Amino acid sequence: MDTIYAPATARGKAGVSVIRISGPNAFSGIGKLVRNLPDGHGRCLRKICNPQGELLDEALVLTFPKGGSFTGEETVELQLHGSIAIVNSVLKCLSELPGYTLAEPGQFTRRALENNRLDLTQVEGLADLIDAETDVQRRQAQRVLSGAVGRLAAIWRRDLVRAAALLEATIDFVDEEVPVDVSPEVLELIDRTLKSLKQEYSGSAAAERVRDSFEVAILGRPNVGKSTLLNAFAGRDAAITSEIAGTTRDVIEVRMDIGGLPVVVLDTAGLRETEDPIEQMGITRALERAKSADLRILLVDHVGDVPEVGLGDDDIVVLAKCDRPVAGVLGVSGKTGHGLDRLIEMVNERLSVRVAGAGVLTRERHRISAARGIEALLGARIEVSNGSGQTELAAEQIRFAISALDVLVGRIGVEDVLGEIFSSFCVGK
Ligand code: GDP
Question: Is the CB of 226 inside a 6 Å radius of any atom of ligand 1?
Fold first, then answer.
């Protein structure tokens, strides 16, 4: 096993730059550059010299013994002055140490996974935490990183293993004269797990949205003021990035932080009757995109003038170009900013209701595993409850559910998903 090293902080000038080293030769290798390295948990200020004895920097050196670090391996962190020249010279020295290789993206975390310091969902939570741009994203990622999925899965697994064992016991003792009827307990175990799994499954759509962003589409006829409203949204401090081009010329997107929620606001092509086939395509696309969005804001010229665009109960209809307050009317003006705060508040309220039901299954992968588990348990439930005598079949279905949950936390099938997960990590993590 190589000892890996990499900068753990972004490249460039900074107050401090951190280089992290992990592996069996971490202490012995760094001991060649630093005198009197503590060999357990320790921190000290030390001069770092190259093998020729030239001083490279004075650094805070942190040591973590095997079993007591993020990766589970011997680890050293060098907190250097944040200079490009210092970092490069130290990296060069490290590259020349025996058994040392530059880490690949996510390789430290991968070792943490291999050494059972984290389960697969925690690795995903960590990736999400690093990517988090808003408070709600941060909180959700922290919950997953803390092992919330693993804790739930452990309870599900414990109950299902008992249910399967009870069924298998009756298969083995089928010839006994008075076989104990295990079905009430098996059903109770299945039902308890199903209830919890279904609850998490139903919260997964909102949790995925928190991870990826909610979409809010602005709709209305041409010139009603959609782009101006979008710009007003983007001009607020809340905009994360302004006016990134959408997938088509017809949809402009702005990423925003609305009360801690990640939201992409979409400006769609103006809706109107047209003979122009190109414009017609734009409108069709706008309508499709608006339909798949989480929420729609429809700008209208007159109160009560709502075109047929398939609005849901939650969607917001607002009077456009309402530059000044008008009693009893929900209006907005991208020009004067009137009504903008109220509109943002309404968007936040509507999306927050959905987030309240978000669970800890934050990825499609999680949702698929949960769905497989639910399906198998429903099958097992039928076999057990109708007393069909198909005990083997029921036990097999429960085993199938257990393996779906094992895939979820990465007990099995890890290799299939690691590439994708670690591709999103940076070097040094
Ligand atoms: P879109 O086609 O729906 O995107 O409409 P635009 O945002 O391009 O606006 C069309 C015209 O209406 C432009 O001349 C804007 O300056 C004007 N406009 C847009 N929003 C407002 C508003 O809130 N108040 C006023 N008075 N004019 C507006």
Answer: yes
